[in-house]
From TrEMBL, chain A:
The keyword Membrane applies. It comes from Promicromonospora citrea. This is ABC transporter permease. The keyword Ribonucleoprotein does not apply. Keywords: Membrane, Transmembrane, Transmembrane helix. Pfam families: ABC2_membrane_6. The chain crosses the membrane at residues 26-48, 54-76, 122-142, 148-176, 197-220, 232-255.
From TrEMBL, chain B:
GO terms for biological process: response to antibiotic. SUPFAM superfamilies: P-loop containing nucleoside triphosphate hydrolases (SSF52540). Residues 9-253 form the ABC transporter domain. It is a peripheral membrane protein. It comes from the Bacteria. It is found in: Cell membrane. It comes from Promicromonospora citrea. This is Methionine ABC transporter ATP-binding protein. Keywords: Antibiotic resistance, ATP-binding, Nucleotide-binding, Transport. One of its GO terms (cellular component) is plasma membrane.
Amino acid sequence: MADRLRAYRAVLASRARSQASYRTSFRLDLVGAVLVGVIELAEIWVLYSATDEIGGLTLAQVLLVFGVADLAFSLADLVAGHCDKLPVYVRAGTLDVFFLRPQPILAQLVTSDLSLRRIGRCLVGATALAVGLALNDVAWGLGAVGLLMLAVLSGFVIFTAQFVTAAGLQFFLVNGAEMTNAFVYGGRYAATQPATVWPRALLVVFGTIFPVAFAAYLPVSTLLGTRGVAGLPAWLGWCAPVAALWAVVVAAACWRWGLRHYRGAGG
Amino acid sequence: MSDVSGNVIETEGLTRVFTGRPERGSRLRRTRHVAVDHLDLTVVAGESVGYIGANGAGKSTTIKMLVGILVPTSGSVRTVGLHPLKERRALARRVGVVFGQRSQLWWDLPVRESFSILAAIHGLSAADERARTAELVEMLEMGAYLGTPVRQLSLGQRMRAEVAAALLHRPELLVLDEPTIGLDVLSKQRLREFLVAQRREHGTTLLLTTHDMGDVERLCERVLVVDHGRLAFDGMLAGLARTVGARRELVLDLATPGPDLTDVPGTEHVRSESDGLRQRLAFDPQRTTAARVLAAVAERAEVVDLSIVEPDIEDVVREIYRATR
């Protein structure tokens, strides 16, 4: 196993070293990433300056939703965010080079880069999460800790799967990055909001097909015992791993389908 | 090692059809383009094969099917005895590929680091990595720029590094797609010498596509000419020269205008320019050498400057096409 991981480790370590060698640029990138996160947080704060409650959640509660969603997304972005560079890899021929190496193509794509500046975003998410936990009246116990960890982990898997799904679809959609980005980044944005304010159509898209509602909103609702979307049971938040599994199945299908198309096997 | 038959490459009826989408709103049916058309190909271990043809004749498509990037539309293909699609990863351990137009190196890393990542990718032991890298660095004379980031290398330096990268894991088969494109004379020469030595020492099978007749003449024993996806010629290099007369042209600038040099042994006078100040002699490199021709000319006139024009591979291919159609 260790031997098998050696290939990926070698690539990732080189990526990290190369970023570290441009220190000023790296620091600026890091600050930029933090600023973007802070601005998004400020946006929520502005909304709440006009009202006390949006979609049944207070500012403190939304902060928790934002924290879980943003941390999960930022971690996924760190690991798989560069999958959206696939069209560049295809054009530059880098993808063909992946075929010449004895590792799975997707594993090579995911480990081909590591944008450490995205750690900045993780910090914002983690801070929002910590503050959210402090401000809310959480009934601490094994269940609460478990649910929270499950939410972040499932969210991470769901968002990572979204990146892979988008990459798989890129094989078909020439210059379709705008379209897939709408789902990936739109999904991220939606995940930081209370699902109760979404219109029905969005609820279907982000609740079932791209199940980002399970990344933060539903588990946090279960955790805080707030009334969620009408007609949905309170324990739904515990189903985040099921949603994550579904997202992985969709991603695997899209990726395989896309790769078959690239190799000209039809599909 | 390769399979029992000893064939490194084996294709039967290998075909690849590309279907293009018609323009949006057009009533036209999907376009069909047959890139590779029922190709039967056998390459035996240790052979050195030049795969030539005009642009769009199907060379790159064939290579992509050989290494598992593209799926054949029909027909079968075995590379080092493996199925390129089902056994792509096993195949990758035993085949090295150099695409002249795309890099396997990491552009922002020093050459040395690219090699060590590739060693990790192919699971080479530390000792093996050291030995193999040292061998390749010495043979390809890369010592001076081993610590230079790939993006700062000249094209010639980069190509040598690419070839080394493809050979690091000691593949049985090395596929080179346009390896000398854009290289200067000296770089080409070095690369060819290295490939000849590599083959002699490790028995590596070579398959290369090229637009450079010099590559074919100096590296390949056997030549395959492909035309519209079909094999138009398969035979020894000498046979190719006989078929099309792959002659070189010696361009001579003389000190004073003189009569046409029609009596130089082993050559044919092509034409004279500027009252015989510049003369062109064609010769067959299989029968005489440039040096011998030059010596014979020097007895007749004073040579100020000279250059050698290689036969254009496009001409050779065109001749083959004409002969086989």
